[in-house]
Amino acid sequence: MKKLLILLASLAVLIVGCSATLNPKSQLKTTTATVQTQVQQEQDALKTIGSTVNAFPSAFEKAYQ
Predict the structure, then answer these.
(1) pTM of full prediction above 0.70
(2) Interatomic CA distance for residues 39 and 59, integer angstroms
(3) Position 1 pLDDT exceeds 90
(4) What is the separation of C-alpha 65 from the centre of its chain, rounded to a whole number of angstroms?
(5) Average per-residue pLDDT in the chain?
(6) Degrees (nearest 5) of the Cα angle 29, 40, 21?
(7) CA of 22: how far to CAs of 10, 11, 26, 28, 34, in Å?
(8) Confidence of residue 19 (pLDDT cuts 50, 70, 90)
(9) Taking CA 42 as the corner, what is the angle to CA 40 and CA 57, rounded to the nearest 5 degrees?
């Protein structure tokens, strides 16, 4: 019985200790910031691709001439 109480007490301390580091609000803020950064980088890459594709016909015509 004494071992069971010690085991349950140590499990409770472990759960309380872990729950302090797991903050859903801060995790959500961090994840949101990461997603926003990645979306901005992808939008910049799409703009670069779009400008390259739009410039391609005129560059091709100049090279052909």
Answers:
(1) no
(2) 30
(3) no
(4) 47
(5) 80
(6) 20
(7) 19, 17, 8, 11, 18
(8) low
(9) 125
Q: Rounded distance, CA 59 to CA 18, Å?
A: 60
| Helix (H), strand (E), coil (C) string for the chain | CHHHHHHHHHHHHHHHHHHHHCCHHHHHHHHHHHHHHHHHHHHHHHHHHHHHHHHHHHHHHHHHC
Length of the chain: 65
Q: Any idea which residue has 């391609």 for tokens? A: 56
